[in-house]
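Re: beginner question about structure tokens

> Can someone show what the tokenized structure looks like for a real chain? I only ever see the sequence side.

Sure, here's an example I had lying around. Input first:
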Amino acid sequence: MQLRTPAILGLAICLIVPFAAAAQKLESEQPQTQRGAELVGGPVTPYVFEGDLRDLPTSVSWRPGEPIKEIPRRNNNGPAGRLVPYERGFGLDPLLEQQEDADNLGGNPDFLTPILSFNGQGFTGVNPPDTVGDVGANHYIQMINGGGGALFTIHDKTSGAVISGPTNLDSLGSGSCSNGFGDPVVLYDRDADRWMLSEFSSSGNRLCVYVSLTSDPIGGGWCNYDFTATNFPDYPKYAAWPDAYYVGSNENSPAAYAFDRANMLTCTTARPIQRFTAPQLGGFGFQALTPSDLDGADLPPAGSPAYFLRHNDDEAHGGSTPGQDFLQIFEFDVDFVTPGNSSFTGPFNVGMSEIDSSLCGLFSFSCFDQPGGGSDLDPLREVVMWRSQYRNFGSHETLVGNLVTDVNGNDHGGIRWYELRKSGGGAWTLFQEGTYAPDSADRWMGSAAMDAAGNIAVAYNVVDDTDNVFPGLRYVGREAGDPAGTLPVGEVSLVEGSARNNSNRYGDYSSLNVDPEDDCTFWFTGEHNPGGSWSTRIGKFRFDSCGGGGGDEIPCADVDRFQARCRPGGTLQARVIFTDTSHDGDTATITIDSTDNVLPIINDRAQISMPGAAPGSHTISLTDPAGCVADVVVNCT
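And the corresponding structure tokens:
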């Protein structure tokens, strides 16, 4: 959630300053290094909760007629809230056409059918819910805002059933952390096999952080840290990194914090948190950096700094680089032994195609129309949305994320997603980007992630007053071999809305995560509307090309990947993706149990699904147009 300043008065104030105070041309900027972090507070000794969560009382559900709490967004005053002269819009988004040309390139049975889709926590009398979740080796945890702070439920990964909760997070804390205030975040720290949960305290500028004592979040115990921030740490977003837990927050200047992960994992006294701030941008009253959260089995290269991101709509923020906007990266290198050695460097500007942040202006909190009128929904234009995901593939590193943009200059929200890459110690560069807005519906509040095979999924909210689409949740994706800058797989509805939301406070984030057990299965949670008040949904899905048979060593030079698998019920599936489109119009032969299937090659791929396979081993062979043969053996149980 986000709070306005001053919160006690519920007022939003924007300070306008001359254009001369706006940012200078980005092409002339050089990254600046700040050395020596601000130490915030002193060492923090934890409080230990050693009980079983199932012994705690569950939260009492909100009942109709009880008060509803509206959490207004927080606009920072002063330079961070300055406005600059802005000529809105540039017409159609420059990336729309490439997506239109790539739509419906082929099905993907796994991805197009959610493995699970079930209800999460329901309306708590608070707007917005700040829906978030993460998945670990054995559990899924969802968190939302409740009337007395954050609530969390722990779910079985196979069925989605609730094992524990909903539990008030502050029931695990002490002191000021015994009075939670919401804005929840949950992380599964894969490298440590631990959980981290967080929320505000109602007692001023404080962040309450909980780290599980073991991999078991239910009966293994929790370690509670009560940290003091410099200012009210609004909209805190966390990331797990080998040397720290990193946090970005919306303060008078965008703030970046580092928490002592090493000591927190041993439940010992945490050394003082360290803080830097980033330069402010003109145009937005709400600003925060999004830290990049580590996914996958491979850690970043030794000594790698943590990465924080934001987007810079050059026109909105007072720059003058026609035809181009930017993703900005900041590098946080922490030293808990000698804080004077800690550094914060940036921004590193990575050029991207034009975005338009002017969604109903640059600071309106009401924009996207709902069917039947009523409140227009908050576009959340200001931040790179949760999460910014990091992966290390060995040959290269990736950063994947998304933001919302106006795709036609008329307040039509679409998802701009991107993949950055870094190789061999070089700089981060834009590998691909795309805009997803295939119809009149507004799409926003997205979350993006990449699996171990390099496939990308993007999940988001959707609403459309023209076609009577109430606020719901959908997802779309791309396989690693699909045309660059496109999301041709899907779109899939996780849950459709059936009523308009009674508050414009929608969000403020959702969460798409990758299951560490197979590094392939995506888990998503977000907000939708089955009635006039929101509810939440949880779903999981995956690409059949991730973790399937074959594809690693293909003897055919023209073949990029050849995968085969047995689906439940004895349906054999095989798919071949060629290195380019030079074979479009040719045929490939996929042989299943000595039965030849001659298939046309369309858009560099061919695929087949054959039901009725008996249990046991099956040999599936590919013969490419040049006569090269590759084999895959799969087992049906």
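Each token stands for a local structural state, so reading them left to right follows the chain. The longest strand covers residues 180-189.
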